[in-house]
Amino acid sequence: MPLPSEVVLVLSPRAGRAQKAVDRIQAALEREGLTVKAVLDVRDSPGLDRWIPLPEDERPLIVAAGGDGTVGTVANQVAGTGALMGILPLGTSNDVARSLAIPMRLPRAAALLRTGTAATIEAGRVEFGDGTARYFLHAAAAGLNVTFARMATRASLRKRLGRLSYLVSAVAALRERRSFTCTLALPGRERSFQLLHLSVVNAPVFGGFLNLRLEGSDLQDRRLDVLAIEQGDSLRLFLAGAALLLGRTPRIGGIHLYHVPCFSVRVDEPLMLTLDGELASRLPAVFTLAPDAIRVVAPRLQPCLKA
Q1: Angle between helices 22-31 and 106-115 (to 10 degrees)
Q2: Are the beta carbons of 121 and 296 closer than 8 angstroms?
Q3: Which domains does the chain have, with CATH numbers?
Q4: CA 172 to chain centre
Q5: Mean of the pLDDT values across residues 215-244?
Q6: What is residue 265's three-state secondary structure?
């Protein structure tokens, strides 16, 4: 079945280039013969309920124009519905788009929405203690990433510093780091730690243009990659970062990596969690995989994706 020629565009007011480039985005889509039926602020994403239930031959392409947070928000709306999502990577990191080999430049990303293929990918799913559940495409994280997200998503900081806000936020997160106690209930075993950081990774690429990658991970491997970093000195964090820059799995005391289809996290006190870089809810929680949950336009001939 051909890709839809009509588009509903979802934009983030915070994404680096999206808000300033609405006209340019629409022009790029129109050059590819795509008709923009509606433009939604990502904060109004529940409005997609108007389009998602339509029959497949009438349903427009739902395009997330922004960074990983925008992509994650749209993914939560389309997961399990059969609706097709497109991505225009206009954020700062764009790790989901990089994991899918989507071009970083707007004209080429727009062209892909006409020439690509509809692929299905898995998503991470997290169920919280209150019974609510959310999906994530890139990662869920607690610890360092929460401090980072609180600063990096602050509108006043982004307005003053632009892309440098990510560097400033990272430095602040390291300076303010605090450990937390948690128990990971993994298949067949439990491990308790005093952690500085916990990541649950679904998409293998992270770090934006640095193109860091977890070794042996992809978007269709039917497992979550759990990275747990114990409280320790700055040297340990530096060595872990250096290993990731070299494309290696960190094999350093106090750093643990597990590949599992599901697990749960218990904590002594409720702990804030980010999903795809956005503040979401609090641990404790149960993490599982949602196979083939998301339909997305991706480049052809990717062996890790299912057409």
Answers
A1: 40
A2: yes
A3: 6-122+293-298 (3.40.50.10330), 126-290 (2.60.200.40)
A4: 22
A5: 70
A6: strand
